[in-house]
Amino acid sequence: MMTRRKKQMKNVEGGGKILTLLAILLLLCINLNPINAQCKIKNIAMVDGEEITYDLYFHWSFVWKKAGDAIFTTKSTTYKGTPSYKMELLASSNKSADVFFKMRDTLTCIVSNDLEPLYFRKGAEEGKRFTVDEAKYSYTNNQVIVEQSRTWKDGRRQDHHFESDQCVYDMLSILAKARSINPENYKSGDRINFPMATGRRIDDIILEFRGTENIKTENRTTFRCIVFALIEKDKKKKEKDLITFYISDDNNHLPIKLKFNLNFGSAQVTLRTIKGQKYPLQSIVK
């Protein structure tokens, strides 16, 4: 029988995936064509002052219980003299969820006004574990250079240098690009791969389009949504669905809801409030 400590550790690891999965949800306003080397794109959807809040729920003992909150904001800023956007995603578990795992995570990303990735940071406090992942981008001779690092609570640090002639993104900078692409000609089963910097390596993530669906949020608002699945491959190349997610079928391409499976059960993140978005919420079903 699994000891209580081992159960708690599995819960901590599962809780640590929540913010990552939510961040990935936030990038799902994409077209289903491969990303090319053109890292600049005209901003269409992002706007200074946008703010989205979410409720986080877990399925424990046959009932859904609220486990925490998350907030995503976008603000104008300047980075090393370059006019930019700063995106920030904060998530935390509540007191009842802290019994099983404690999560206090912050993701920060800066992109230029042309939506080129410039900087990414993830500070993750999960149980007794605290790590800081960073990615710093530069562009020289049509090459993307990414300097990544992970720093542990005890001061240990791991660095990773990566160069590519293809664009590289992190969990939030891909959102900036994706939200400004108008999806057309979707076909069920269409896929794309995203190269993403994690602080320790570059990962490829598979996204699959799965049609449309109407989704009702906790405030009883129904949105017409585009449905995608996030898929990973294990060491044997076997595919596994991690998450099903729903984004608004309008020009805002806002994440409305996600559902996913963790080691300790099912979970979902549901939209609570939106303010400061650029366009009317035309995906609301009357």
TrEMBL record:
Protein name: DUF3108 domain-containing protein
Organism listed in the record: Bacteroides coprosuis DSM 18011
Source taxon at top rank: Bacteria
